[in-house]
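Revision sheet: structure tokens.
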Amino acid sequence: MIFSMTGYGKATCLLPNKKITIEMKSLNSKQLDLNVRIPSLYREKEIEVRNEVSARLLRGKVDVSFYVESAISDKVTQINRQVIEGYHRQLMPIAQDLNLSNSSDLLSIIMSLPETVKTEQAELDEQEWASIKTTLIQAIEQLNDFRRQEGDALKRELQGRVERITQLMSEVEPHEKARIEKIKTRLHENLQELAGKFSVDDNRFEQELIFYLEKLDITEEKVRLTNHIQYFYETMNEAEASGKKLGFIAQEMGREINTMGSKANDAAMQRIVIQMKDELEKIKEQSLNVL
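Predicted:
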């Protein structure tokens, strides 16, 4: 089964005083490249989030984003009574010396001084986090479902390209036979032109001709290409991730197609080989999208 590396997942968690939405996006990457954007309240759980995502997603550039809509702040503000009392003890004698009797004015002055108010991060509720973690898993599953659907489309695309290469390979055969006859005829004609100047051993000529034609034979390349194509089909149906393996097989297919082109020595065959190369390049491009 083929999975695409491109995907999108989204899940929402409704808590008593807040709504948390988790979005996940993935793109192509050779390895797992994970980027997590998480509110400060849940920062201590970032490693747990990374581990959860890494265990369920093998490859890809993955962005995980937490969005929080809360009716209450996750920060707790407290008045620092001890600091205020300290300021008051110091300022009260000065106020009396200056005949400043308005205590509200004095308090407003004190509250503007440093550290009279302290803001602390609220503590994370483990029960709340359990609900959020369940939502995270749901988002991952949605992303995987998206990848599976994209993978089905990729599989159809790859199968069509490979089938086209198989068809083109079958079209080579008639040109291959005609090519051999053309080469024989051309060599015989050239030999006849030289017959008046040099003596030619017909038996030796036949031996050299057979040796030359063997170098142009592409039977082995076609057999190996057929085997690679069969292996490509088998790999697409494997359960585990197969993107890298498909890329390697495509490289081997390319070697055989290139060798066929170098041995073609025929314009019609070379045109077919060029079409095969074009299909193979599209296969390589699509293989980069496979997980």
